[in-house]
Write a structure and sequence with these properties.
Keywords: Dioxygenase, Iron, Metal-binding, Oxidoreductase. The protein has one domain: Clavaminate synthase-like (Double-stranded beta-helix, 4-Layer Sandwich), CATH 3.60.130.10. The strands form five sheets. Strands 1, 2, 3, 4, 5, 6, 8, 19 and 21 form a nine-stranded mixed beta sheet that branches. It is built from seven helices and 21 strands. It has 375 residues and is an alpha+beta fold. The structure holds fe (ii) ion. The site of fe (ii) ion has 3 residues, from loops. Fe (ii) ion binds next to loops.
Length: 375
């Protein structure tokens, strides 16, 4: 499809069962007019994932400015830079660019110098430490798993609402091998993926395929997240599907976390409304969830039960035929609707395989829209 000014929107070859994603061609991301931005915004809310190819020369500043167009009142990185405490599980994964602190360098391997960042050791997650049960070392190069399905969000802090969008730009991508992604949950489900893919699922699809009873439950239940969730969960181990954590009592007790203010604890609707189309998306961060507040006023606070309920709701939405696993090429910039998709990194790298990605998202000042709100 072509729109005005030679800008083209092309469908991304995502799975047939869950069509989402679009590629936009013909826009200069460093010089966006208001009309250009409207085209991007409309495409984002309609398709959830927007791909721009060949963006190697886009500066970190202009990457940040693309995020900033969606959240003009925001200029703080989604997890803030002063809450990336060393005890947080996110700490080793994120290196802040000194000249553009809203943009993080993530990936794997040693980087001598990049955009003012010197001697950075990037560390991709690995099955050996991330999941409770590891993929055997002999199979490590051939197989992988989802690590952590998530929304990019601090999920703690009254002024740190989930970012509307995230941008991810592939600076350096190791190529040449693919891996078989195993769910390892007894279903036999597998997915053929490129090394170091980012996998996406549509929260709108996940909602759409729920039973009628589950839709009512999802529309009327609110999710309370753990305070300082990435420190709280730092000792717990991930399920093989990446859809939450094992309940082995390894979460840090609240008294071992940094100071907690009740007003900073985030409670969100389980379904978030698309601000353009009005559609509902099932949006839960399954690893950070701590309690469920039901419509009748009761609260499920048994963590094992909370996780079981959330898992049952989310698992159908990550079926292989619904997952879009992006096959990265250097220069790809993916803009995704962080309030309408879940995503996860995958892949097991050798220590010397260098992967460099620039990631940006901004903590928003407005909470996501719930089912009660109208567009
Ligand atoms: Fe992420």
């Amino acid at each position: 499809m072509t729109v005005e000014g030679g800008v083209e929107l092309l469908p991304i070859p995502t799975p047939v069962a869950s069509k989402f994603g679009v590629e936009i061609k013909g826009l200069d991301l460093a010089n966006l007019s208001d009309d250009d931005f409207k085209t991007i915004e409309q495409a984002l809310y309609e398709h959830q994932v927007v791909l721009f190819k060949n963006q190697q020369s886009l500066s970190p500043y202009h990457q940040y400015m693309l995020n900033h167009r969606f959240s003009p009142d925001s200029n703080i990185y989604g997890h803030s830079n002063n809450t990336k405490a060393t005890a947080s599980i996110l700490h080793p994964d994120l290196k802040t660019l000194p000249n553009q602190p809203q943009v993080q360098l993530i990936g794997n391997g040693f980087v001598r110098e990049y955009e003012g960042l010197q001697n950075a050791q990037l560390k991709h997650p690995h099955h050996g430490t991330f999941h409770k049960t590891a993929i055997p070392a002999a199979e490590d190069l051939a197989f992988t798993r989802f690590y952590r399905w998530h929304i990019d969000a601090a999920l703690y802090g009254a002024s740190m609402q989930p970012p509307k969008v995230t941008t991810l730009m592939a600076v350096k991508v190791p190529t040449g091998r693919r891996q078989t992604l195993r769910y390892d949950d007894g279903t036999g489900d597998v997915l053929d993926v490129s090394l170091g893919t980012t996998a996406f699922v549509s929260g709108e699809k996940s909602y759409e395929i729920l039973s009628d009873a589950d839709k009512v439950f999802a529309r009327t239940t609110r999710v309370e997240y753990a305070p300082h969730p990435y420190i709280w969960m730092s000792q717990a181990k991930s399920l093989p599907t990446g859809l939450g954590m094992f309940s082995d009592g390894l979460e840090l007790p609240l008294e071992k976390l940094p100071a907690i203010t009740d007003a900073d604890v985030q409670v969100h609707p389980m379904c978030w409304r698309n601000p353009a189309t009005g559609k509902l998306a099932l949006q839960i961060h399954p690893s950070a969830v701590r309690k469920l507040h039901l419509q009748d006023g009761s609260v499920i606070d048994d963590i094992a039960e909370v996780r079981e309920r959330v898992y049952a709701l989310l698992r159908p939405g990550i079926a292989p035929e619904l997952v879009y696993a992006h096959d990265w090429e250097e220069g790809d910039l993916v803009l995704f609707h962080n309030r309408g998709v879940l995503h996860t990194v995958c892949g097991a790298f050798a220590p010397d395989e260098v992967r460099m990605f620039r990631q940006c998202n901004l903590a928003d000042t407005e909470a996501p829209m719930g089912p009660e709100e109208e567009v």
